[in-house]
Design a protein that fits this description.
Layout (H helix, E strand, L loop, with lengths): L4 H28 L6 H18 L5 H8 L3 H4 L3 H30 L14 H31 L3 H4 L6 H31 L6 H25 L4
Protein name: Pectinesterase inhibitor domain-containing protein
InterPro entries: Invertase/methylesterase_inhib (IPR035513), Pectinesterase_inhib_dom (IPR006501), PME_Inhibitor (IPR051955)
Organism: Urochloa decumbens
């Protein structure tokens, strides 16, 4: 016999009320639940900044080290190799910018912005052209250092990871190469400064601007080298 319409309607009503109550409870629970907080990200950033402060204390330009590398703290966290690589990348970026700036100075003032006084002295333009070349070469050397540090970070040593990792000898070789490239970059930076001084160009507006730029990039490169020196092997 078919169910009575009133009974069927009452059954449906009870079912609908039950579903509605469950749905309302779930929605209330979801609304009351606290939103997830980025605690993990904050913890990583805090750990990285503390590590950075400790490592920058070993450099000659501590404030510059901390301020320039803090934006990358979540990336290197507590990795000496990644921190040194970040420092090298920052130094390379500043060197490329300086090289571009010197080219702009030459373009604005023509091929001979000023002639150094004294017999046999190179012109200021020649010294600036040399600075364009040496700062560009320094940037390439710093990038080579970064590449060495990238290889060091990509594969742990055998002692740290068990069989299959690179040997400690290979790790020392990569760190040694990174130091060599950074030292060579600092030599190129010094060559630029020496050339400007020899040309008697350090007092001109263009010479002052480039000299100040070289002083700045040398600090970044010096910090990168100090951080490479601090990589434990």
């Amino acid at each position: 016999m078919a169910p009575h319409p009133r009974a069927l309607s009452t059954h449906h009503l009870v079912l609908l009320l039950t579903v509605a109550a469950v749905t309302t409870q779930a929605a209330t629970t979801d609304a009351a639940a606290p939103a997830p907080t980025p605690r993990a990200a904050e913890s990583r950033s805090s750990t990285g900044s503390s590590f950075l402060r400790a490592r920058c204390a070993t450099t000659q330009y501590q404030t510059l080290c901390y301020d320039s590398l803090l934006p990358y703290a979540s990336e290197f966290q507590t990795s000496h190799a990644r921190l040194a690589r970040a420092a090298a990348d920052v130094a390379a970026a500043h060197l490329r910018a300086l090289s571009t700036r010197v080219k702009g100075i030459l373009h604005r003032h023509g091929s001979e912005p000023a002639v150094g006084s004294g017999g046999g002295r190179p012109s200021e333009a020649a010294a600036l052209r040399d600075c364009t070349s040496t700062t560009s070469a320094a940037a390439n050397l710093v990038r080579q250092s970064s590449a060495e540090l990238d290889r060091l970070d990509a594969a742990p040593t055998a002692a740290a990871s068990g069989s299959g990792g690179r040997s400690s000898r290979e790790a020392r070789w990569e760190v040694s190469n990174a130091k060599t490239w950074l030292s060579a970059a600092m030599t190129d930076e010094g060559t630029c400064s020496d050339g400007l001084e020899e040309a008697g160009a350090t007092a001109s507006p263009a010479g002052k601007e480039v000299t100040a730029g070289v002083v700045s990039v040398k600090q970044y490169t010096s910090n990168a080298l100090a951080l490479v020196n601090g990589i434990p092997l």
